[in-house]
Design goal:
alpha/beta, five-stranded mixed beta sheet, 14 helices, 481 residues
């Protein structure tokens, strides 16, 4: 079937204007392709997922979206609006977007191919967005009129009563920035960015998807955004944490992708470039946030978004280089690589496949583990008066993979009285030093410089992850020691 689909797709190229188009906007040739696509079901094995992604990788987003819509809704004669399962509204296919450029292209495709009325849209209000972002909510709803059914989530209010011994209690949703600051703090985004993301994005979204019993959600992530997204597939399966799995799983059989085990995540523009996205927006007069006209390339919260860094012009990470400023992060907690890793490992184990760890080359680095960490940090295994440049990383992290050649170069450079070591945090906990959490890691890669003269100190590196910048920082620290 895949060979037939690819052949039909090639026959369409360059012939769109020669065919009569139906009410959904498809030509006769495109309808023939879609009919072949509609015969492709959701995968039930890892190999089927690989084969389906090979197919979807060669398709334009309109075909990917129509395939997903048919597979989840039309194929089972589901009528999304008003459908109830166990007394609850069921929205099997949902778009989740912050109304960035890619999300807007997807939204316009859903509208153009008459899918928007049956695919609700979720956006997450952290209560800390730019004023133009809030204004755009009204603009985009006005543009798509009655066909856009938009749900705007709000941060959750989570309490930890002492009498429950640290267990959390959901107390509702927060509706204003002042209320958020009163419940948490005005600086939660900086003091605990992972928890901030959890209460403003992750939990509100997951609660809504659970309420709607969503099977698949559509995202605007693309490979060209770099970092952990550079190997992104069109279709992914995101496993639930073990304590969130639905039912006993007896109905799942040997299917690692059963709905009781997780949700599908669809990235229809995975293979588009930033220029392709904006060419579409301009050609189709798609409305967008006015902040993009001021030079922003990716927009999030007001306090952690700035203009992209000129030093990254031409790099894959340029588009998102203005995000998460002051947090040393290039990836939103919603798509954390550690969460993704656990899901992938779980899928591999369930499928009986071997779990392989990527190798990040660094011949002269000392690889630490939970047993050797403290004795090295305490200077027992190092020459006297030596500094320890310590990296916390995960080999599955895209940013760590990009940084690996830099760390290797630093180790080979043989900086005087400086030893380079690294600690893989993927499945290890960072040991405490003198019963204190000295090494705080909020993202990877994270660098610390450890010294013992005249007394112990561990200093976090907050600059660019570039060879010359780190080397200059190390030289300055040597001078002041």
């Amino acid at each position: 079937m895949i060979i037939v689909v690819i052949s039909l797709h090639h026959n369409i190229g360059g012939q769109h204007q020669k065919y009569h188009h139906d009410a959904s906007g498809n030509s006769a040739a495109e309808i023939e392709l879609l009919q072949a696509l509609y015969d492709l079901p959701l995968p039930t094995t890892r190999q089927e997922l690989i084969e389906l992604n090979d197919e979807l990788a060669g398709l334009e987003p309109e075909f990917i979206l129509q395939w997903a819509h048919h597979t989840l809704l039309a194929a089972g004669n589901h009528h999304l609006r008003g459908q109830e399962t166990n007394g609850k509204n069921s929205h099997l296919l949902v778009q989740v977007t912050s109304f960035g450029p890619t999300g807007l292209v997807i939204l316009d495709h859903l509208s153009k191919y008459n899918l928007l009325d049956t695919v609700p849209v979720i956006t997450m209000d952290t209560l800390h967005l730019f004023k133009p972002s809030y204004e755009f909510f009204d603009k985009v709803q006005s543009h798509y009129n009655s066909t856009l059914h938009l749900t705007i989530t709000k941060p959750v209010h989570i309490d930890h009563p002492p009498e429950l011994g640290g267990d959390s209690v959901f107390k509702g949703f927060l509706s204003s920035k002042a209320e958020f600051h009163d419940v948490y703090s005005p600086t939660l985004w900086k003091t605990d960015p992972q928890y901030y993301t959890k209460v403003t994005k992750i939990d509100p979204l997951q609660m809504k998807l659970e309420e709607w019993q969503t099977t698949m959600w559509i995202t605007g992530r693309r490979r060209s955004q770099g970092g952990e997204r550079k190997e992104l597939d069109v279709l992914e399966f995101e496993s639930f944490p073990s304590d969130k799995r639905v039912g006993s799983g007896e109905d799942a059989g040997g299917n690692p992708f059963h709905s009781s085990k997780g949700r599908w995540k669809l990235n229809p523009l995975a293979y588009w470039s930033y220029d392709q996205v904006w060419n579409y927006i301009r050609h189709n007069e798609v409305p967008y946030n006015m902040l993009y006209d001021l030079g922003f390339t990716s927009i999030g919260d007001e306090m952690t978004t700035t203009l992209p860094k000129k030093s990254h012009v031409g790099d894959a990470i340029y588009e998102r280089s203005g995000r998460f400023v002051d947090l040393n992060r290039t990836e939103c907690g919603l798509h954390s690589h550690l969460q993704k890793l656990k899901a992938l490992k779980m899928q591999s184990e369930e499928a009986g496949e071997e779990w392989t760890v990527p190798e990040l080359k660094c011949e002269k680095c000392i690889d630490l583990n939970e047993d050797t960490f403290l004795e090295t940090v305490e200077n027992h295994n190092l020459p006297n008066d030596s500094f320890l440049l310590l990296e916390f990383y995960s080999p599955f992290c895209g940013s760590c993979q990009e940084f690996a050649p830099v760390l290797n170069r630093l180790a080979n450079y043989e900086i005087p009285n400086t030893v380079v070591a690294r600690f893989d945090i993927t499945e290890q906990s960072i040991p405490k030093y003198n019963n204190k959490d000295i090494f705080v890691v909020e993202s990877t890669p994270t660098l610390y410089l450890v010294g013992h003269f005249p007394s112990f100190r561990a200093e976090l590196y907050s600059g660019k992850h570039e060879f010359n910048a780190i080397l200059q920082w190390l030289r300055e620290k040597r001078k002041t020691s």
